Amino acid sequence: MTNKIKVILIHKLLSSKIQFLKGVGPANAVKLSKLGILTIGQLLEHYPRRYEDRSKLKSITELTDGQYESFRAVVIHVNELKSRRGFKIIKIAVQDQAGVAQLTWFNQSYMKNKYKPGMELIISGKIQRHANIIEVTKPDIEPASEFYAGSGRIIPVYPTTEDVPQWRLRSLILQAINLLKNSVTPEEIESLPTSIIDKHNLLTRKQALVNIHFAVDMETLVKARRRLVFEELFLLQCGLAYLKQRNKYNSKGIKHAPDGVLVAKVENHLSFKLTNDQNKTLREIKADMEDVTPMQRLVQGDVGSGKTVIAAIALAKTVENGYQGAMMAPTEILAEQHYHTLAQLLAPHSIKLAILTGKLSRRTRDEVLRHFKDGAIDVVVGTHALIQDDVEFAHLGLVVTDEQHRFGVRQRARLESKGNQPDVLIMTATPIPRTMALTVYGDLDVSIIRELPPGRQPVATYSRSNTRRNKVYLFAAEQIKAGRQVYVVCPLVEESDKIEAQSAVKIYEELSATFFKNIPCALLHGKMKPQEKEAIMTAFSCGDIKALIATTVIEVGVNVPNATVMIIEGADRFGLAQLHQLRGRVGRGKYKSYCILLSDNTNEETLERLKIMTEVNDGFVLADRDLLLRGPGQFFGTNQHGLPDLKIANIVTDTDILLEARSAAQHTVCTPEYLDTVWQTLQNWFGEKFSMIFCR
Ligand code: ADP
Ligand code: MG
Question: Which residue range or ranges hold the Helicase ATP-binding domain (predicted)?
Answer without folding.
Answer: 288-449
